[in-house]
Predict the structure of DUF4245 family protein.
Amino acid sequence: MAARSPRVVAELGRPETADETAARKAESSRVYRSSQTARNLIAALIVTVAIVAVIIFAVPRGTPTEQPEIDVAAAADRVSETEGRGALSPSVSEDWIVNRASVDGDGSVRAWTIVYAPEGEEERGFLRVAQGFEADAGWTARLLSGAAPTSQTTIDGVVWDRYDVDPSRSGNISVALSTALGPDTVIIYGIADEEQLDDLATAVSAEVATLREDVP
């Protein structure tokens, strides 16, 4: 049987040498392994994405716990009992929601403070109603970064001092009203327009007038 002649490689125009054959096979093996590695990486990526999708869409999530509505009247009753004095509990319109109601300390003055925000989701701002217990003469000025009253206004029979507040100095305060409640001082202040301020002051005035009747 005649010996088989070496295969002529077209690119070379002659048969491959043993070294060239070995190099070609080594390169073919490298390319194959490289393609297999790429396929494995793509497969691993697909599996990873699938797992992440399962975690995102299949794992149940708890919904945020709805915060209970703050009962200002009940909280005011507790403050009245603790402090031995009437505490503000104004009946505000549905245009306002209560964010917080607590007794805060400001240096030597403790104050029953209710924080209101506009009910509308697109509305911004807030107003605090603070009843400073036996507040000293400088308490209001400290809250308002030194602002002084510039005029007076009467709302439902209650005379209020109106302040010209400079927001650049007071930070987050643009409007304010204050009035006396026996030995205490009541101040309404925050970020709002004058209409919103007067709207809330109307409800607070009614409560101030009621509590004044019980002040010795």
Q: What stands out?
A: The longest strand covers residues 96-106.
